[in-house]
Predict the structure.
Amino acid sequence: MTKRLLLIDGHSMAYRAFFALPAENFTTASGQHTNAIYGFATMLISLLKEEKPTHIAVAFDVSR
């Protein structure tokens, strides 16, 4: 079986997810926004189904 590694830029994907979904539609009872989490998970699941990797790594960068 061929091994496939999926590398993901987590910061970029989270940023895209945050702005792709309206925050007012994704909030907890206390008002905390969950649109980035939902969008990130949805995109990740879609990538996993499409690419079928054997391994996955998500990297997050930090600003200085």
